[in-house]
Each structure stands twice: as C-alpha cells, then as structure tokens.
Request: fold
Amino acid sequence: MTKNLILGTAGHIDHGKTSLVKALTGVDTDRLPEEKARGITIELGFANLMLSGDIQLGIVDVPGHEKFVRTMVSGVGGMDMVMLVIAADEGVMPQTREHLDICRLLGVKQGIVVITKCDLVDPEWLGLVAEEIRDFVDGSFLEKASIVPVSAQIGMGVERLKEELLKMAGLVDQKRSDGAFRLPVDRAFTVAGFGTVVTGTLLSGQIKAGDEVELFPTGICTKIRGVQAHGNKADAGSAGQRLALNLQGVDHNQAKRGDVVAPRGLYRTTRVTDIEITCLKSAPRPLKHRSLLRLHSATYEVTAQVILFDRESLEPGKSAFAQLRLSSPVLLLNGDPFVLRSYSPSQTVGGGIILDPSPPRRRRRSTEALALLESMSLGDEADMVERLVASTLLSGVSFQDLIWRTGLSVKRLDAALSISLSSGKVVQMVRDPRLFLSRESFNNLCETLLNRLETHLAHNPIKDGISREELKTRIPARSDQRFFNQCLMHLEGEKRVVADRDQVKLPGRKGEIVDVNATIQQKLEEMLINSGAEPPTVKELCELLVLPENTVIEHLSLLVRQARAVKVKSDLFYSPVPLQLISETLVKHLRAKGEITPSEFREITGLSRKFMIPVLEYFDSLKITVRAGDKRFLRRR
Reply:
C-alpha cells in the first residue's frame, strides 16, 4: 500500500528551492509567466516524487520572498516534512529564520537541511556553512537532521538526497484517514468542460466522487464530481495526498484560497477560539493583551485580537492560554496549528494550536477555564471530553458539537465518551440526537426541578401536584426541555417525587390542607348541596364568596378529586346527590319509553334550559345516553 506524505520546501528567496524540486522530479513548479520573467517563485508550486518502497511524496514548493510569506504559510499547513534550503554562497538569511520558525509553529516534526549551489563554493567554505547551519538549527526539530550538499545545476548530491528523504519518510506517520475529510484550498480555477476545480492537501479522512460537501466559510453546499490524486484521476483521495476536486455547480468566483472543503453539515465556522500560544524568542517585544495580529492557519489569513487570560503581556519565549477574536468567520478544529504575524513591521511573532473552536463566554483569570484548556492541551481525550461537557453547564452539548470542538473522529469520541459514561461523570440525556450533561449539572437540574415543584405546591396548598407538561415548562431557559424525562425518572428512582398518570406529586402530599382552605371548601360544598338541581355557576360562586376565579376553580377541583363535587362542564359543578337523582330519573324514563327529547327531559326534571343541556351532554360523555338527532337513547352496556 502506498504511503502518501507531503514534503515542503522552505528557505530564503533565490536559494534554489524551485531548481532543487526540478532536479528531484523533473518538474518546473514555476508555472506563471510573471515567475518566469522575474525569476522568483510567487505562487505555490507542486510536483510528485515516487520513492522506492511505495512512498509517494507530494512536494509543495513555497515562495521565499518576504512579501509572499502569507503564501508560504498556506503551503506549510499540510506538510509532513520539510527541506530547509540554504544557499552555500549566502548561508542563513532572514527568511531562513522566519521560515524555520513558521515550520516549527505549524507542527512540522521532520526535516532535512539542503545546502544548494555547492558548485559555487570551495570545500572549506562549504564546511563553514555547515557549521553555521548546525548552530542555527540547534534546539529546533532540525537539530539532528541530515545536512545534504547539493548542486541542482550539475546533479551533485541529488541521489543522496533521495536516499535521505526515503529514510526520513520511514520515520513519519501518514495522516489519519479515520476521521472526517478536510481539505484546505490552496488553488481554485476553472477547467473548460469541467467547471470549478480546487486543490489542496487532504488533512484527514477520505473523499470520493459523489460525496456531499460544504465549502467554508461561505457555507455553499455541493457535490464532488471528480477526484485527482497527485495529478491522476482517482476513485477516492486519502489523507496525506495532494488532491484536485471538481466541484459541481460552484461558480469559479465562489471558491478561493483559504476556503475549506469538509462534509456537509458536520462543522460550523467560528469567530472566537481558545488557543495555546507561544511568543517566539526572536519576537522584538512582548505580546500585549488585546494585540491585533494576522492569524494564518491552513490556507487562510484573518485579522485576530489576542485576549490573554491570566496576564497583561506574554514575554518572548513564553507560552500561555489565550483567546482569539476573529474579524471574519473561519473553520477551525481542536489541534489545528496557527501562526501569528504582526502588521508593522510584518513579521512572525508567535503561534500555537487551537484548543476550543467554540468556547463559551469566559472570564479572564477563571481557574475553571484554565483547567479546561490545560486538559485540552495535554491530549487526554476522556478528560478533555468530560471537562468540555461540564463547561456547558445546564445547556448540555450534542455529540455533533463534541466532534467539532474536540476534533476527534466518531470512533475516538465514542471511546472517550464510553469511559466518561461508565464512570458516571457524564450522563446521556437524549438518545437521538445524542445530548450530554455532566453528572454535576444533571444533579443540579434535578434539584432545580424539585425546588420548583415544591415552590409551586407551597403557593398552591390545595393541590396534590402539578401536571407533567407544566413542570416540564419550568426547566431553566438555558437548559433543554428534552432533559425533563431523564430528570423525572431520576427523581422517581430516588423516591423524591411520585409520577401519577399526568401528575407529578411529592410523596405523602395528599390531604395537606390549611384551615382557611378547608373553610372555603366547606362553604362551596354547602352551596352546591343547598342549591340542589340548579347550582350557582363558577362566576356566581366567585361573586358570592368574593374570591378570584382561579382560587374557586382550584378548590372545586379538589372537591371533585375527593368525590365531594362533580364537574359537569368548565363553569358548572354539582353536588353528587342531586346529580345522581337526575341520572336515576332519566334512566327510569328511558327504560320505560326508550327515548327522550330535551323538552321531555325538562318536564321530568324541572330543569331550565340553562342546566338541562349541559347535564344531558354530561350524561352523553359518561356513555349513559347516546344522542341521535334531537333524541337520546339509553346506551346499551
């Protein structure tokens, strides 16, 4: 199986990077007329090199001029290893230093130092240059790297360089292909007969023709019409390959360098992100809180304000946790490296990695925030997930958002969550979509619901409980009503509440009535009994007792639950005895006559129309009678 890696160049302008790539591959990566005319690299160039052992290198040639550092950074983002190119006749130069800093900040771990133009100097001078280089790379990821003298003009050292590249490739792990695909765009152009094509290095996952994708940050959704890997048509592309993707239905001006191709609907852009940042030792001054800088990550550039959490400035050579507030939305994931450059003078001042691409509002000097960021920087996936879930408090977090905020694949996130779920530190609140709360937040939410139930019953002493739906609406606004069932089950399991049909009650609550309420109920019961077959309506009872309607209805409802009253309709309640007598009179008539009309019902009961129609409809609802037109019949049992 072919191992796909990305090899990049780095180094000062006119140190022979492009000539070196041509000597290795036969490809001249300077394709623009302006590059040919000026003799310098302006845009990223690309070539392929197949080494023995089925190792394929996608080579990215970057410009060396200080004006094109932005372009250079966009080429470094996907590199697995680098060739730091230093001309023998000039040695270490300013862009040599900045390019090495950028490679280090963007997480490049393996590299080779190539001394070019060796045919222009004598052996003694070449030895001095090699010594200078050893001092220069000391303490960096290149301190033990091979130094290979080469002359692209005469072919000197090219074969040895290939041997060294092969050795180095054996030490480098291929990018992970188990996660979602993500391709930062470094070129976008139109091909006649095909439409818009974008190119880039696939950072993770696999992508194939027919996949539905989203173009960030614009949010344009489209499909992949075709894939080329290292210049050849392919069924699919894998992490670590240079790919060209033909986008269906996307206009040529809708895609550009800095965009990112990712699965449709999986990620979101952000304008705030938490980071771990390092200020370069070579920075001219400390990095101040609220500094405005240029953020470079993947293939884009955006203005960013640096918010330092626990200090007012960051000294050169020091690291800290911070937050970036961006001028425009971009797609960032946990673990993404970045570079920060100043505006004036234009130079690299620091960089680091993205920790949380969607942080909540944080207070400066918050110990909880710093502890969370510490866990995210250490790479313990289960601990990171637990702290992320806990940071969402009562709001909870979805599985989808955890993928985005952690940068983990589905498989790795499931593994981390299984540890937290089995330990009880995280609770799954909803099955589809999967939503999670920390155990502490879950317990707090249960206590909040219980307190709100107790408060409601304290203000409504004649009530036994509260309806499920009403209690559900008392979930805190910042939380989610879908969490209600899980909380109720937990409180029931602890025997702190009783769920009775559609009512939620406190254990032992029934019958807890204060004297003043007993008096009101007694008066209502007496009024219903004394009024016989034509009792006062709710409105009339309110006027007689000088009480608000909701209070009267609450007390009448309690009498109904205690079988001391009968609700005929919403505003009409009867004492049970007179209503039973009316029922017996009606049934006796129907058994004798077989049917009854409303006028006949009025004759045998003496009820006025105000009462006889609601009572007849009540008997219909009890299935004592059945209505057919204007008549009623005894329902067969």
In short: The mean pLDDT is 90. Residues 439-459 form the longest helix (21 residues). The first strand starts at residue 3 and ends at 10. The chain has five domains: 3-171, 183-263, 270-367, 515-574, 577-634.
